[in-house]
Batch of 2 targets.
Target 1
Amino acid sequence: KAGVTQTPRYLIKTRGQQVTLSCSPISGHRSVSWYQQTPGQGLQFLFEYFSETQRNKGNFPGRFSGRQFSNSRSEMNVSTLELGDSALYLCASSFVKLAGGTGELFFGEGSRLTVL
Amino acid sequence: AQKITQTQPGMFVQEKEAVTLDCTYDTSDQSYGLFWYKQPSSGEMIFLIYQGSYDEQNATEGRYSLNFQKARKSANLVISASQLGDSAMYFCAMRPTGFQKLVFGTGTRLLVSP
């Protein structure tokens, strides 16, 4: 069973550019969430999508956006990049249990973004 | 609001020894889940173990066990018989039931020496 796939794994951008990161969840998982990891702020929740709807959003500026497609694949976009956006962006998928238990979240290997 | 505290920035252990990584949490929710993840230098977050707040028994997964003390709001990870491949960052995280948002601690870097 394939795991969570994130592309691209590494990318370099310059300030002011925009970037799109992709995440393919584990087959059958309908929930996809995104996290930003930096040395200074640690791991922070960006947003979560379930059945193409954003259900939860972290405390990030509007430059950070995302979407989810009907096949559960998700993309996140960061516009007008700033130096501080350099980070590892991690995507997690889970099979949401409607009754009982919370279900584990499985992460991809991440997309490492460097903003110059 | 939920908060996870990991007070050990780094831990050192010799191969084959057991090690306990500390985690305390703060929440007003009655129902929540507690997780431990391992992050090697490659960056991937590897799921290790899960404990639900209503689970009466401590969770175990192979060499990993979670020492869950609800009254103390602690969820320590115990790794038995450490291996060199266990060297990595370890994160404790919490998620309220019904939400897919994880709140992470700052992590503990574990170094296993031969």
Target 2
Amino acid sequence: SQQGEEDPQALSIQEGENATMNCSYKTSINNLQWYRQNSGRGLVHLILIRSNEREKHSGRLRVTLDTSKKSSSLLITASRAADTASYFCATVNFNKFYFGSGTKLNVKP
Amino acid sequence: GAGVSQSPSNKVTEKGKDVELRCDPISGHTALYWYRQSLGQGLEFLIYFQGNSAPDKSGLPSDRFSAERTGGSVSTLTIQRTQQEDSAVYLCASSLASDSPLHFGNGTRLTVT
């Protein structure tokens, strides 16, 4: 499969804890993007990291990319109940976006 | 400004009927994608438009599926002779350029009975 694959499939944590999700892929990429999906809604773009970047931050989000291992991680710090959602990585090669099956994050208040 | 709009939000149809799903992308977005998402699953790519042309139709599951885009804007996805396995959420997304972040609509939930 050319898709990114997220790990773990499901993650349950307490509010205030950090959440880490991983993504592995097989193809070469221009960039890798992380998206969030709340139940019954479309996906919302969170952060983009280019193939020549190793780390990127946006608010409470930190993304790393290791192209030699073909893997990325998304860290959400100081999680909140409102962070409960599914998180998807998308590996991007020109116009082709490949989505994994997502990590379901549950943040308990 | 307005986001990506999809209609209808829900569609229930009988097996064998044809359905049309509509997507209004963000104004000025040249790239448009259709995806299908089954319950609790990831996204399955269907088709990609750049302007009005569809350089990548590789994800359409069968010849019952077709899509068009007119005026570089609105797109319709048509499913003919619907089957129960077509039941899913159909998501549309648009972007400014081919590898830019995607902006998704809230999808059309299709149920084939």
